[in-house]
# Entry
Amino acid sequence: MNDQPPKVDGATVCADFNAINTVLHYTRAAHFIGLWKSEWTLIERYLPDRTAHILEAGCGAGRVAVGLWHQGYRNITAFDFASELIEQADSLKQEQGITGITFLQADATRLGESSLIDYTRFDGVLFMFNGMMQIPGRENRRAAMRELSRVCRPSAPFIFTTHDREDPKDLKAWAKEAELWAKGEQNPRLLEFGDRYFSDETGNTFMHLPDRKEIQEDLALTGWTHVHDTTRNELASETPKVRNFSDNCRFWVAKKS
Ligand SMILES: C[S@@+](CC[C@H](N)C(=O)[O-])C[C@H]1O[C@@H](n2cnc3c(N)ncnc32)[C@H](O)[C@@H]1O
# Structure
């Protein structure tokens, strides 16, 4: 009999994001934190045209989409697979009398199931605050990258963030984790080296922490050309509110090949 607990999968992550404390956390972020300086620096650099049709994946409760609307963008499609978060995003949109953002429920690994996304050719795509790394399984992350490339026009920019497994301050901890994997003693719910699944006051979080080589390989395999990557700290000095909400991360820019 196999008494191992099940691996984390997309359904686990979706349920975790629909949990009440997590919904509150991302709803507060949409209402009170808004766009980070680092996000705005890159989005304005690579998508300066306010008429651009932008696709935002993993939009949560609307923090980035609504922030972009306030910067003058009027043609945004934003989706998330967590229905509770989309409900919050829609109510923020109504509260602020926003037109020009469509929020919808969809799974980044299966965009063909959403006709509103499937038949559009977007000018740029965003997957902010490490959302793509919350897809369990490298093949599934690649599926999302392929899908996002498929629904973009040629040369469209793709901006996303990840944690950085090569961050010098974490190297010792990863070396220890590697020893656990070598002995088969890692958390049995994890799928791949670099995965973490933990609980805190905001709920359960699955996160894959990649190294740079992994992301470069995956971009090249899924219809993207790597343009640039840099850490958030190198891009901008964030407010304490943003730094409390999220630690440093790596920003990636690619363009559709
Ligand atoms: C860290 S949260 C960021 C939310 C929002 N972008 C923000 O910055 O406040 C990551 C988001 O990605 C979403 N997500 C993860 N996997 C997804 C998938 N396969 N399809 C759609 N959304 C997904 C989660 O539901 C969650 O809302």
